Amino acid sequence: MKRSLLPAGGALLAVGLMAAGLSGTAQAAGDIDTDTMANSTREAASIVSFWAASNGAALRAATSYTWDAADVKKVIQKGGYSPDGSPGMVAPTTTTGSGRSQNINLPKTVGKVFFVDASGKYRWCTATSVQSNHRNLVATAGHCAYDTAGNSDVMGKWVFVPGYYEGKAPHGIYVGKQAFTHYDFSNYEDYDRDYAFVTVYNGVAFDGVKQVGKKDYDAFSGLKWSRGGKHHLLVSRDAGRLGDNVGAQGLAWNQPSGKPVRAFGYPYAAHPDGDRPYSGVTPKTCYGPTTGKKVGASWLKIDEHVGLKCAVTPGYDGGPWLKAYSNAKRLGYVNGVTSTFADQDGNDRIDWITSPYFDGETAEVYNAAKNRWSGKIVGPKGELR
């Protein structure tokens, strides 16, 4: 259904970084739309340099991506769901990858996506690694990949940092290569299709500072700086594929509603009453059954969301709703992503979150993304290509 929708709203490095333009040519095939985020390894290297410079200063400066809290209202439940086909599931995968997160209760697959919005602000949402043939896929909300508020193309300088904690990237930084969404979201901002699957390049990790001569310094294409006649490089390392390092959640669609899920995310913004109970540093989880009826939000022209009782705030956007989640394995099946926030009891505090219902059209978008290879950013000598 196509319709208009109102937008939701170690060492100090002194180095000049090239700005990277991220807009790409959109391509559509049926219900699937795809846009380029970083079209070349050169562009991807510039993006990872931007976020890694000065010990991740830009990462620490980012704030949650959200709309005006005054837009948070009550949602309405109406009617039951009618799946558009047979139920389907793709199994999750574990990993033997190394690296620890400071957030010990967080699945290794979950982290933050960072980007620059149309206003030039550094922002974040929540996302997760999801199963794909090349172990290089991220699932998040559509509005965390496309800049609906700025009425522009994909978000700028988009990266995923699983296990993110206070400027640290324990499993590497993964630059977005290509975003896949439903055609109705990217063209009509239809929040009933507010989900995105993004392919990412191999991760980039940094192995410390190396002092070199002028010749090697001039030839190096990564992060570097000179001081007092001495030349230093920040040596990069190919961290490998996302799914090999952190594993990948499964995916489920056309599932019955009213079943329990566990949702994860990094809440940060204030409630509508101005109270700010979350720091955005520590991820939070909610657990419970989704609504058994369709959720509608006239103020966002939403007809077919599912709801979950969860008193978190924006920053949680894009976080996965995991069906059949195993606390022991920390794996489950992505059966939704946080899209909007609601105040059901009218006390100016968020008490619900909503997600698009994952159906066969969601699976079509996922299937288009899961087979795309991305590639490496780091060269054989630790240089950014």
Automatic annotation (TrEMBL):
**Is the Signal keyword given for this protein?**
yes
Q: Which Gene3D superfamilies match?
A: Trypsin-like serine proteases
Q: Which InterPro entries match?
A: Peptidase_S1_PA, Peptidase_S1_PA_chymotrypsin
Q: Which UniProt keywords apply?
A: Signal
Question: Which residues belong to the signal peptide in this entry?
Answer: 1-28
What name does UniProt use for this protein? Answer: Secreted protein
